[in-house]
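tool=predict chain=A
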Amino acid sequence: VGMSIDPKLLASNFPVIIGTLGLLIAGKTVLVALVGRFFGISMVSAIRVGLLLAPGGEFAFVAFGEAVNQGIMSSQLSSLLFLVVGISMALTPWLAAGGQLIASRFELHDVRSLLPDESETDDLQDHIIICGFGRVGQIIAQLLSERLIPFVALDVRSDRVAVGRALDLPVYFGDAGSREVLHKIGAERACAAAVTLDSPGANYRTVWALSKYFPNVKTFVRAHDVDHGVNLEKAGATAVVPESLEPSLQLAAAVLAQAKLPMSEIAATINEFRCRHLSELTELSEMSGSSLGYGYSRMMSKP
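tool=predict ok
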């Protein structure tokens, strides 16, 4: 491509080449963006795709060369178009960076509309804070909604927040470990928080912030493993629930059912394992001075 570029031709026809280059990039960007919108992708994504596909391609050199051979295009026009396509290809990284910049600006503007506003939550009292609106957070939100218990959910993924907003739920974009964000959703008036964030570090930071700045809020958090649960207890969690216990027991029950065991025997086996596991957690909590597994032990002791 570089060997096909004539610097003298570029200097002598600079305005024409730059004008043609601008038409090529602008025209292809608009065209591809419109096609993207027609196929249902967002405007921001359509613009980014348009900028990525705006430069010319290598096949243009093959087409121009064949056009010259067939007498369809003059060699001078072909050389001009070689320059335009070659320069457009060289601009690809900058066009990609420009698309990323535009996307970040638009996404920032979109996210601002999802941020919590004190005026929207100032009437809440004794509500629940759901930190993380993933699969677990959405189930908790559904259960609270069915019981008409007021709650506010936070998540740092705008797509999850958009899902909640589409269901007309009070879900906001924000870091649950931020004192300012927690204040905006009325944490000082909340009674409890369910912390269900994806990463152990985010869970720990959120529990620590709630315990330090809003000690009135009881925090119930899921733990990835025992060590993580102990650290959460030390950070101030009211109750820690091991996230792998119940899903594992449900899966085991399904496997045992497939093995033709009677349902009564399956239930007894599962309950025996659950009780044994919780007793081990109780012993661990006594040794570590924490209440690991407290959420489960209270729930399972009632039956």
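Strands lie at 128-131, 151-155, 171-173, 192-195, 218-223, 239-242. The mean pLDDT is 83.
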